[in-house]
Amino acid sequence: MTRFPFYLALAGAMLSTAVARQADAEEKVARGKYLVTTSGCHDCHTPWKVGPKGPEPDMSRALSGHPADVNLPPAPKASGPWIVSASATNTAWSGPWGVSFTANLTPDAETGLGKWSFKNFKDTIRTGRHMGRGRPILPPMPIPMYKNFSDADLEAIFSYLQTIPAITNKVPEPLPPSEVAGK
Q1: For the chain, what is the HEC assignment?
Q2: Closest Cα partner for 48 from 36, 72, 66?
Q3: What pLDDT digit, counting tens, does each position of 116-166 carry?
């Protein structure tokens, strides 16, 4: 009695399962790319440059956060109804909270999300705190809106972010309100 048909059927089932898993993973990454694109992540986490039609995201530094090589002067003092200011790169913001710098979302292991787990990412969005337990995530990050993403959406976003090119870019730590000009 030969067992060849049994092993052939088993191999076929295993291959079919692997193909289905790969398709699911590709769909998850595609969904994550869609969510990152439509949720405005590039608006702040991708440094801007001046292009032929004015300011535009510098996609060669996509989602790498505030450029480490851009040294800014002290933030201007808030005055009247103008209480928020932003750098020309749109990656540094100043307001009553101090100065915040947008994070590197690329999978760089030392300066981005490369060592993060999905749990770290989800906890950060859900709690509004770095790694779910550290310092507060500061404006302009729309945590009050983003915490409404489903777990599946957050998993798709995280999966997509793990597929983009890693960019080494150490973003500065936030500055407290006392370091904003005029305070």
Answers
A1: CCCHHHHHHHHHHHHHHHHHHHHHHHHHHHHHHHHHHHCCHHHHHCCEEEECCEEEECHHHCCCCCCCCCCCCCCCCCECCECCEECCCCCEEEECCEEEECCCCCCCCCCCCCCCCHHHHHHHHHHCEHHHCCCECCCCCCHHHHCCCCHHHHHHHHHHHCCCCCCCCCCCCCECHHHCCCC
A2: 66
A3: 999 999 999 999 999 989 999 999 999 999 999 999 999 999 999 999 999
